Task: inverse folding
């Protein structure tokens, strides 16, 4: 029987913003590890007569997140009431956004690797982002065997929700997207996004497109919950794809319009467990929040937001490769965090002309330099002092270079083919072997001579 299937995966991601106070009141938003129900007030407890006062910083940061994800920022936006009854929602509704969010129609490019015939192929893929909106978080529910406790410290914490289109085709793509998203929100300084602490929560929506002969079927849509790490996101999706395929083979059940169920991830058993049927937009009875005025942006305000995020991680990585001659690996490590990238640029500025840039990059990476403890000035001083100590002899240097060339034949061939950056990599390898006892310019001169 001719049969083919492909996963269709979309994501809803919630990320807590690291503002000092909550979304609509002055209570502390730093709730993790705090004594239950000690950071609450009439507003976040939903007591009668308490009125919300929006957190401007949270609104601004949501716009920054939208722009960093390539979104359009509508000039008019508003808050809405999302009505549903659940123990973690004290008001009986959540202040969220529905039809006019702060960011729409964004995209994020992934570099997805495929292994085939022992070669690593990298392809680009665009993931469309439907919307980025702002809402308040709910209380935390702590379940015991026969009862549940509620901690309202988290209720009211600013939460951005990022909704993608169902453009993912594998768990690897999902993981790559989440890692990149986490890096971006940390880079622009709006969130810690630690999944283990619940600061970043992901709910994948999964179903399958199945081709049998000339017919195409779609399995029922399932939303996965209770996932608290990138590794478990990957495992949950892979399990659900396998489960849906087996279920279709048994029952032939297909997707019905407007029908979605939720399944929780049980990490101990490594399975997903049926929870409930998912509500649709009509069930929430959205209507505009009457206690909060709409938001109107001027063009100059949006321009000012854009100026705050000129160099995102991908841009900085490309800069390090083109301007500094670093390898993709070096650039990726040094742009993993904004603090690290800024530190490296200061080191390059101070050491340029005195020390090879590739040597500086390798030293910071391999020695795992604690950038919070040693300043760029001190690092350069230390390395220059090291230069004055024992120097390796010409014969020893040549022997080490020949050894490095033998161990890195691909880089040697790349240089012969005209890839100039390859020599920087080789210099770094030799510097590591000589433990800094040879000058980069001496190594480069001898390298080029020996390769030629």
Result:
């Amino acid at each position: 029987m001719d049969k083919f299937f492909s996963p269709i995966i979309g994501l809803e991601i919630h990320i807590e913003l690291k503002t000092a106070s909550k979304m609509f009141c002055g209570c502390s938003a730093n709730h993790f590890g705090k004594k239950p129900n000690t950071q609450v007030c009439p507003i976040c407890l939903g007591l009668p007569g308490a009125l919300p006062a929006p957190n401007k910083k949270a609104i601004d940061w949501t716009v920054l997140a939208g722009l960093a994800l390539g979104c359009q920022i509508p000039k008019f936006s508003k808050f809405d009431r999302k009505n549903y009854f659940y123990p973690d929602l004290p008001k009986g509704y959540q202040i969220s956004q529905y039809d006019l969010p702060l960011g729409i129609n964004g995209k994020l490019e992934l570099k997805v690797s495929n292994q085939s015939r022992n070669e690593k192929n990298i392809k680009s893929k665009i993931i469309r982002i439907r919307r980025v909106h702002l809402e308040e978080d709910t209380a935390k529910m702590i379940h015991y065997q026969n009862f549940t406790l509620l901690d309202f410290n988290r209720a009211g914490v600013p939460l951005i929700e990022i909704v993608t289109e169902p453009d993912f085709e594998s768990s690897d793509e999902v993981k790559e997207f989440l890692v990149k998203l986490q890096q971006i929100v940390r880079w622009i300084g709006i969130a810690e996004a630690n999944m283990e602490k619940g600061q970043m929560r992901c709910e994948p929506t999964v179903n399958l497109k199945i081709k049998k002969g000339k017919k195409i079927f779609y399995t029922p849509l399932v939303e996965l919950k209770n996932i608290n790490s990138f590794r478990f996101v990957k495992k949950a999706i892979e399990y659900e794809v396998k489960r849906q395929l087996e279920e279709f083979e048994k029952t032939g059940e297909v997707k019905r319009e407007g029908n979605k169920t939720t399944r929780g991830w049980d990490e101990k058993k490594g399975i997903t467990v049926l929870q409930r049927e998912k509500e649709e937009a009509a069930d929430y009875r959205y209507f505009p929040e009457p206690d909060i005025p709409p938001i109107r942006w001027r063009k100059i305000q949006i321009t000012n937001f854009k100026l705050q995020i000129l160099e995102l991680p991908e841009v900085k990585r490309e800069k390090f490769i083109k301007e500094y001659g670093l390898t993709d690996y070096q650039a990726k490590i040094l742009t993993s965090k904004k603090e690290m990238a800024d530190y490296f640029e200061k080191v390059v500025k101070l050491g340029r002309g005195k020390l090879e840039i590739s040597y500086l990059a390798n030293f910071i990476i391999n020695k795992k330099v604690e950038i919070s403890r040693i300043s760029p000035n001190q690092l350069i001083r230390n390395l220059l002092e090291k230069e004055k100590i024992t120097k390796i002899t010409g014969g020893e240097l040549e022997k080490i270079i020949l050894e490095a060339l033998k161990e890195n034949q691909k880089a040697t061939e790349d240089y012969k083919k005209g890839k100039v950056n390859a020599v920087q990599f080789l210099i770094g390898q030799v510097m590591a072997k000589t433990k800094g006892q040879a000058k980069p310019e001496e190594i480069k001169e001898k390298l080029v001579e020996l390769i030629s």
Observations:
- The chain has 14 helices and 16 strands.
- The chain has two domains: 12-205+278-302, 313-451.
- The mean pLDDT is 91.
- The first strand starts at residue 3 and ends at 16.
